Amino acid sequence: MRTALTELLGIENPLVGFNRSPGVVAAVTNAGGIGVLAATGYTPEELDAQLTWIEEQVDGRPYGVDVLVPARTATGDPADYLASLRAQIPQEHYDFVDSLLAKYDIPLADTASAGDRFAASVGPEIVQPLLDVAFSHRVALVANALGTPPPAMLERGKADGVPIVALVGSPKHAQRQLDMGVDLLVAQGTEAGGHTGTIATMVLVPEVVDLAGDVPVLAAGGIATGRQMAASLALGAAGVWCGSVWLSSHEDITSPAVKAKFLAATSGDTLRSPTRTGKPARQLRSAWHEEWANPGSPSPLPMPLQPMLVDEAWRRINQAAEAGNDGAKALASFFIGQVVGTFRELRPAADITREIIEDCNKALTRLANLT
Amino acid sequence: MRTALTELLGIENPLVGFNRSPGVVAAVTNAGGIGVLAATGYTPEELDAQLTWIEEQVDGRPYGVDVLVPARTATGDPADYLASLRAQIPQEHYDFVDSLLAKYDIPLADTASAGDRFAASVGPEIVQPLLDVAFSHRVALVANALGTPPPAMLERGKADGVPIVALVGSPKHAQRQLDMGVDLLVAQGTEAGGHTGTIATMVLVPEVVDLAGDVPVLAAGGIATGRQMAASLALGAAGVWCGSVWLSSHEDITSPAVKAKFLAATSGDTLRSPTRTGKPARQLRSAWHEEWANPGSPSPLPMPLQPMLVDEAWRRINQAAEAGNDGAKALASFFIGQVVGTFRELRPAADITREIIEDCNKALTRLANLT
């Protein structure tokens, strides 16, 4: 298949596999797409090790990396930054999370120190080292999942000939990214897992394509099969950016207890909720969301306060769910799009990649015979 | 273009134009698609006149009709039925609507008697006469926008060789309709105008196609251009069911004040709200929705109580908006999907129809050249 994306990146098929597991990234790249590592939460040393491992697997084939980079970073002493964030989390919120874990028979979290760990992992002092690691590797693209990339990131991409990719959920955000000079846009519809807006892929993609001119646009949200990939190409996308589908792969590192819930879920079992990251993010509906929606429950805090508050709680919930704790299984959830309803079994990521590409080709052949 | 829909209905292109204006219905049919009249709110005599007028325009070409038919109808004295509904609307709600109109300088509505009129228009005593009128005409399909059709409707369709069509927003509802024996399914995604579920078209359509077997499935929601039509065919749909796009046509009878707001709106300016019909329906976001969301505002009532409550208020809002009342313009709204963001000007419905079909063919040609 030839599109603006395959030309730009030198890949066989315009299929991006976005996942936090290096095993998925390598498998997608080796099966004819391009894997992109979601590198949030790594130290620079960890990221370096992961990218080195991926390169050992892919034999020179292209892969990419996604780093969570705020457009403006705080300056000054990291300890002051942490203390100022911590001071913004009300005691009521700590108490609510503690009582929620207790209600579901889950060992209490040491929430405060875990919050520090989370804040540090996305804090200002780690961004430049992470970007340095990413650009020191042979990456075919660098994506930024958080707003507009800082100018330094765009300049580095231009200097190194590495396309900078931005995810957008509205035409307004797309225009802002185009004005900044990004090289590739991912137009992500509301049906996607993780942070999303309200506009559906079917509507958003052609709007962004029309704005973007010569800048290639990938479709994201609701794409887990070849038919959906063909539909995205019909909308004018130069390719697809798939995230959720890899959570049905063996290589994905999501907790087995959560993956079991995914296999049982229908397409109606997700919701957009700010209770995990402080921004609306699509995830599997669970008892967690019912608890936050109860009258008397506190309102979720903005990012990064909400993930500081709940990060360690989620670690405990996942551990307890894997150990068979029924309360934890009821709470268990993760970011996932509406395509979760199509998950039937866990499969190798390479098989998923090949099936999407084959089915896309079949759909294109079927369409050619309609006229 | 040849699909299961064009074969079933004997039409040139698999494009359904769904609208409450007979002028739109005739224009779509004459331009190579098939128009379907949304017949809600008509008396049997009015419906008969509208269908007769359409037939005079279309020179034997096929068209359809959509009637709002509840699966179970109340029996007994219509006056008792009305009185029992009226008794379920709290005085607090009447007072809220009155105060809302007063706040925006709109003449007060005689809400109670208008509610009776609305209830009567969808009440049990009118359903059978409406269906009799529909089947007495040369209709190519009869659709039911409200849940599963009653068995008598399906039997009449079978006897007359008229396909019965049902709209669904989830795989579960699709299965229920298939079990009832409907002839055509419309899988309508959350981005659609009017009553919708939460699942996006990109995800819902392939799910329903896989359930439906030999029953053709049309895609609805987010489809206003040829690219979106081609994408729907890629998803496995046998055609598309377009509703919102006709609200950008000259022939559509929506208030000019509302159509002016549509032309200025973006794809992010809609919301799903139960404040108009009692069920979640996508519509243009306006001051109306802010007022209902205010703390202290009453909760919307279930269908048909909410439309009984607000039907006359909406008539007054539209009249006042057309007369230039600024408060009414702020409140003005109507059912519309996320495609409203693509409206640039009002055009003849025939031009819209032809452009969708031409652009769909162009998209199919473009796709054929990708491989």
Task: Report the C-alpha radius of gyration of chain A, rounded.
Answer: 20 Å
Strand order of the largest sheet of chain A: 1-2-3-4-5-6-8-9
Low-pLDDT runs of chain A: none
Overall shape of chain A: globular
**Beta-strand content bin of chain A:** 5-15%
Helix content of chain A: 40-55%
Q: Order of helices and strands of chain A, N to C? A: HEHEHEHHHHEHEHEEHEHEHEEHHHH
Helical segment count of chain A: 16
DSSP strand tally of chain A:
11
Query: What is the arithmetic mean of pLDDT of chain A?
Result: 93
**Largest interface, C-beta within 8 A:** A-B, 48 and 48 residues
What is the CATH architecture term of the largest domain in chain A? Alpha-Beta Barrel
What CATH calls the topology of the largest domain in chain A is TIM Barrel
The name of the CATH superfamily of the largest domain in chain A reads: Aldolase class I
Main beta sheet of chain A: 8 strands, parallel, barrel
Oligomer: homodimer
Termini separation of chain A? 21 Å
CATH C-level label of the largest domain in chain A: Alpha Beta
Question: How many domains of chain A, as an integer?
Answer: 2
Helix/strand/pairing category of chain A: alpha/beta
Topology diagram in text:
Two copies of one chain form a homodimer.
Chain A: H1 4-9, E1 15-19, H2 22-30, E2 34-38, H3 44-58, E3 64-67, H4 78-86, H5 91-103, H6 111-121, H7 124-136, E4 141-144, H8 151-160, E5 164-168, H9 171-180, E6 184-188, E7 194-195, H10 201-212, E8 217-220, H11 226-234, E9 239-242, H12 256-264, E10 270-273, E11 281-284, H13 287-293, H14 305-322, H15 326-331, H16 349-368
Parallel strand pairs in A: 1-2, 1-9, 2-3, 3-4, 4-5, 5-6, 6-8, 8-9
Antiparallel strand pairs in A: 7-11, 10-11
Helix pairs in contact in A: 2-3, 3-7, 4-6, 5-14, 6-14, 9-10, 11-16
